[in-house]
Design brief:
The chain is mostly helical. It contains 18 helices and two strands. A two-stranded antiparallel sheet has the order 1-2. α5 packs across α16, α10 packs across α16 and α16 runs antiparallel to α18. The termini are far apart. The structure holds tryptophan (TRP).
């Protein structure tokens, strides 16, 4: 699916399964297993989950379908796609915004991905077994206190991502993810079973599933929207890029629906695995970005076969993270290749160097050099917060407006039905969602979240 030079014929996904596998590979990652529990934990649990699910369905799914459709219609990178579909207008700026977001997201994402490499090594060397919750929490802090160790792992992860993108073997990866992602799913189910049978697990389930709307702040609603965008990989052109590899005859709406269901299921299951353990081991649900790393090893330490499960889990999580970082980097690379006529290798190296530069400061800012901060927030926190809660919703807002009002309803229907091949009985609903519901909801949540709108 990759392209070695800008002007050769574009490659495309071989099958519908290939589309779903690649899109799901992008969507499923640390966003589900690391970010969802930590953000839900900071925002009170149950009510947050409910709002999140509403946003996924009413906003996330329509934005995903819109992005894939833009890509499929234009067969070009996000920047070029807007110029093909609406020449002479400023819509291509959405593509540029996406490139900025890609740098920001990959910078903090690879930091956390680096932690998963460290935890794979810890699992391999059996460091979780027979440890108390306090000792397990110390594993994390002493790892962070070295300062250099997380940085090195992050750089290794960036090199791994770049290697795959240069080789253009994302397609080869599809072959493995077909087996590995279902395995990850099985592992999470096993973790869920162990978690809900821990003492005091009911507290955790209540936290996750019993909505308490008194815990919901303005900020929480905005963060639920940001998490929906982040988890589904929408709002910055990743899925325009992937859509551009989809053949005209394919059914994008059914692919988008499958991906949204799978991605959301995995996030909820991750919550079911984490929160019972959080309460059982006396961890604070609002621990922040290290929540999952403080919690999961306790489950492994408390289960039969914990050694092998821990090992498999962190390995699979790394693969899941890789298929996401690839999709983010791809946005920048395909832009450099198609628009600036750079070769793929040079483009990947250049983009990765930029990401690495940001990522190093990001990693240090979290626990070691708190001076790398703006307004009391670490660089890591700033990139994490602003990319998800500001850039992605803004991108999503413009994308749905574009598709709903500027692409032409006839053309839109034609792309989605693949020239009348597929049933589009819900097209009216989709159009209503992207014309009114999604843009108004995004705007309202955004203004409310930053405190400019009050009810
Ligand atoms: N969705 C991925 C995850 O949950 C991360 C990701 C990949 C992403 N591509 C993206 C996030 C584009 C936002 C935009 O881990």
């Amino acid at each position: 699916m990759s392209n070695t030079s800008g002007n050769k014929q574009r490659e495309s996904f071989g099958s519908k399964f290939g589309i779903i596998a690649a899109t799901a590979g992008s969507a499923i990652g640390l966003g589900n297993i690391w970010r969802f529990p930590y953000v839900a934990g900071e925002n009170g649990g149950g009510a947050f989950l409910l709002i999140y699910l509403g946003f996924v369905l009413l906003i996330g799914l329509p934005v995903m379908l819109s992005e894939l459709t833009i890509g499929k219609a234009a067969q070009r990178n996000p920047f070029g796609a807007f110029r093909i579909l609406r020449p002479g207008e400023k819509w291509f700026l959405i593509g540029l915004m996406g490139i900025v977001a890609a740098f920001m997201i990959n910078a903090f994402y690879t930091v956390v991905a680096g932690w998963t490499l460290e935890y794979l090594l810890k699992a391999l060397t059996n460091q979780f077994s027979n440890k108390s919750a306090t000792e397990i929490s110390e594993l994390f802090s002493s790892f962070q206190q070295t300062g250099w160790r997380p940085v090195v792992w992050t750089l290794i992860f960036i090199v791994l991502t770049a290697t795959i993108v240069i080789a253009g073997i994302e397609k080869g990866i599809e072959k493995y993810t077909k087996i590995l992602m279902p395995l990850l799913f099985v592992m999470i189910i096993i973790l869920c079973i162990r978690a809900v049978t821990l003492p005091n697990s009911l507290e955790g389930l209540k936290f996750l599933f019993k909505p308490d709307f008194s815990k919901i702040s303005n900020k929480a609603i905005l963060e639920a929207l940001g998490q929906a965008f982040f988890s589904l990989s929408v709002g910055m052109g990743t899925l325009i890029t992937y859509g551009s590899y989809i053949k005209k005859k394919e059914n994008v709406s059914s692919s988008a629906t499958s991906v949204v269901i799978t991605d959301t299921l995995i996030a909820v299951l991750a919550g079911v695995a984490i929160f019972p353990a959080v309460f059982s081991f006396g961890i604070s649900p609002a621990s922040g970005p290290d929540l999952v790393f403080q919690t999961l090893p306790n489950i492994f330490s408390q289960m039969n076969g914990g050694y092998i499960f821990g090992l498999m889990f962190f390995f699979l999580l790394i693969v899941a993270a890789l298929t996401s970082t690839i999709s983010i980097l791809e946005v920048v690379v395909v832009y450099l290749v198609e628009e600036l006529k750079m070769n793929r290798k040079k483009a990947t190296i250049l983009a990765s160097l930029g990401i690495a530069f940001l990522a190093v400061f990001c990693s240090l800012s979290l626990y070691n050099v708190p001076e790398i901060a703006i307004g009391g927030k670490s660089l890591f926190g700033i990139l994490d917060y602003t990319s998800s809660n500001i850039l992605l919703p803004l991108g999503g807002f413009l994308i749905v407006l574009f598709v709903a009002w500027f692409m032409g309803v006839g053309k839109l229907k034609d792309e989605i039905s693949a020239g009348g091949k597929y049933n589009v009985s819900l097209f009216g609903l989709y159009l209503f969602l992207i014309r009114f519901v999604a843009p108004l909801a995004i705007a309202a949540v955004f203004l409310y979240g930053i405190g400019l709108l009050k009810f």
